[in-house]
Automatic annotation (TrEMBL):
Pfam families: Glyco_trans_1_4 (PF13692). This is D-inositol 3-phosphate glycosyltransferase. One of its GO terms (molecular function) is transferase activity. It comes from the Bacteria.
Length: 400
């Protein structure tokens, strides 16, 4: 998406037909905003939505992606990258002498100079605005804002995972250190916001991620395809899904498992499917640009991750009328999947219960259709126009 190796701006802002009554300046900032991923898609979706409403919008990535993905063919926002190229890892030092030697000191000096130039670019972009807002897409990006003078811009922090995920990582420390100084700290579910408020973060509030597309018609749910969407990596635990499918498959001829996404575990997952005798019915689809069309090919969505915040794949599938079977991983998952109404939730890690829930949906066409209709209605408030309305109301609240 960057269109070249150098740092700079990409694309031009254009006002859409539904321009905002009051045009605002909105910056969105993340570490890597151009890789293919859920949080990156959210930032591009918001930037496009703000731009089409007539807001002066700029998406700023601190570092370029080694594998950039083009989210919008005709972006309605300016796009800037602060560093000119992906950072090369520091060479491992073989000895204390090498670690403290002139070559290593020079390497650190070069990196500091690159960082200073990147911060100067950020300050220059912020200086173009008389007043406005900075939406920070990651706790790791807040240090950059604290190093740049921006008195005319009001900071809003986002966190795209659950409180439990923050607590299990350095993110909780970063959020509690930096987010109290922002106008708002936004989380994906009321349960997560409440947990952060209990950690003495009084500005915690809720803002859902918007759906990146509108599905004009629901999926027919007659394709006999189970789908999973996401990187093929350890945290997604797709081995569990292949195991469940292998157990069900002999009694369900014609059904297939389709895995959407790339990742390092593809060879291992292919081997697992082969060992379990279902390789011909497990289809690795890779990265797919038109995910709305991909969801409409499915009859059931499956989520077997080790942890999730508020998984966009579940919301996107629901928008297409596809019910989900998932482990009950977080408040965000529970807000998207109403057990027994829009899909099935089972206790985390309970492989037997997950397999039984998946088997139930494969066996009952009427149940899938009922869950699918309810799921589509359930996520209607996540449509982009509705979420943009909430953002504009938040801007009004902050300005009062």
């Amino acid at each position: 998406m960057n269109g070249g190796a150098g740092a700079g701006a990409h694309g031009g802002a254009r006002a859409g037909a539904g321009a905002a009554a009051e045009a605002r300046t909105v910056f969105l900032v993340g570490i890597d905003v151009d890789s293919m991923g859920g949080s990156q898609r959210v930032l591009h979706t918001l930037a496009q939505g703000f731009g089409e409403r007539g807001h002066r919008t700029e998406l700023i990535g601190i570092r370029p992606s080694p594998e950039p993905y083009r989210y919008h063919a005709d972006p309605a926002y300016r796009h800037t990258t602060l560093y000119p190229a992906p950072a090369a890892p520091l060479r491992p030092a073989r000895s204390l002498t090498e670690r403290l030697g002139p070559a290593r000191l020079l390497e650190h000096r070069v990196r500091r100079a690159e960082r200073d130039r990147a911060r100067a670019r950020l300050a220059a972009r912020f200086a173009t605005a008389r007043r406005g807002y900075v939406i920070i897409g990651s706790p790791w990006a807040v240090d950059w804002l604290s190093a740049v003078d921006r008195p005319q811009l009001k900071g809003i922090g986002q966190y795209h995972e659950s409180f439990a995920q923050a607590r299990a990582s350095a993110n909780l420390r970063l959020i509690l250190r930096h987010y109290p100084g922002l106008e708002k700290a936004l989380f994906l579910s009321e349960g997560d916001a409440a947990d952060f408020r209990r950690q003495r973060l009084p500005n915690a509030a809720v803002m859902p991620n918007p759906l990146p597309f509108t599905a004009p018609a629901p999926a027919p749910l007659d394709t006999r395809r189970i789908g999973a969407v996401g990187r093929l990596e350890e945290i997604k635990r797709l081995d569990r899904l292949i195991d469940a499918f292998a157990e069900i498959a002999p009694a369900r001829p014609g059904w297939e498992l389709h895995l959407f996404g790339d990742g390092p575990l593809e060879p291992e997952l292919r081997g697992r499917a082969a060992r379990l005798g279902c390789a011909e019915r497990v289809v690795f689809r890779g990265s797919v640009r038109d995910m709305a069309a991909a969801y409409r090919e499915l009859s059931v969505l499956a989520l077997t991750s080790e942890r999730e915040g508020r998984p966009m794949a579940v919301a996107e599938a629901a928008a297409c009328g596809v019910p989900a079977v998932s482990f009950d991983l977080s408040d965000g998952v529970r807000e998207l999947v109403a057990d027994g109404r829009t899909g099935r939730l089972v206790r985390p890690g309970d492989q037997e219960a997950f397999t039984a829930a998946l088997r139930e949906l494969l066996a009952d066409d009427a149940l899938r259709e009922r869950f699918g209709r309810a799921a589509r209605e359930h996520v209607a408030p996540l449509a982009l126009p509705a979420v943009l309305d909430r953002w504009e109301a938040l801007f009004d609240e902050i300005d009062r």
